[in-house]
Amino acid sequence: MHGGPEVTIVIPTLNERANIGLLVARLRQSLARIDWEVVFVDDDSKDGTILAVHDIAAGDHRVRGIRRIARRGLAGACLEGILSSSAPIVAVMDGDLQHDETCLPAMLAMLQGGEADLVIASRYGSDGSAQGGFTRLRSSVSRLATYLARLLLRTPIHDPMSGFFMLRREIVDAVAPRLSRQGFKILLDIVASSSTAIRIKEIPYVFAPRLHGQSKLDSLVALEYAGLLVAKMSGDLISTRFLAFGLVGSAGVVVHLAVLHALLPHGLSFVVAQTAAMFTAMAFNYTLNNAFTYRDQRRRGWRFLTGLLMFAALCSFGVVAGVGVSTLLYSGHSRWWVAGLAGAIVGSAWNYITNSAITWRRQ
After folding, report:
1. Could you tell me the residue range of the domain that residue 83 belongs to?
2. Who has greater pLDDT, 96 or 219?
3. How far is it, in rounded angstroms, from Cα 355 to Cα 294?
4. Where does a domain end: 211, 233, 255?
5. Single pTM value for the model
């Protein structure tokens, strides 16, 4: 009777079809003496990645695929794959062939031998290197992020930004409710979220160049990472999404006041100018939140337009309240920017409720 795999390798994917066959072949070779399985967690790739996984899985029971619909994000994909496993040990690695799969047997041996609870493949320890897989700019950014993580969260590891690691599944089971579904760095989240000490070991590896496809990192990852650091420093009192929403809202306040200031000198009444400013800021906030704060639930095409209409309808109550409050203050001889700011705050409160509960609710 088959007792299940010793280890599950979780690989999040987005448009990695060209790498699937090569990666499975490498796993077969490196893990020849180990009872293993691999779970590809695909964020509904448009290039047929999950079809490539299913083709291989039809002839190899060790290969599984999970297709995520209307859900995005590397951290969430990793968590979903880990929690789907029944193996006592799980590993996470990328699907772009930049992680050295030959490290997996040594990592597993360290866990099974009781040397550690978590083994990290490090690019920055002795004999480790990221030169082949990173541009100079990305290498500098990665090292800065690593320094901040070690400084602010006191993580006792050389490479807390690594996406290549192996650990006991029970650790993830314990911290899963506290983990962020957004962002790229689930390892840092796991270590920072654990209420008990984790025995950590690192092994060096050389970060290889990407062979096929394109990197999934973009300019928003840095902001998500900053949000994760703040969330963990605050003991998860401030969530990553709430912080992002607040940053967008702050930018929206600037837009609101700028529009109000631009319209008032042109003979418009304060009521008209304030209403126009609030609707402009509302559209700005919706667009930016859709692109950033709720990027894992991003509305596209017609859904973007229907979402904007839904958002506008729901926010109309906030607009009425905001205009009423600000007009009352302005008629009482308050400064224009004080009245405008008060209205923006009232509108933003309603805005947050509709964003979280209705406009971008999970399908």
Report:
1. 7-233
2. 96
3. 9
4. 233
5. 0.69
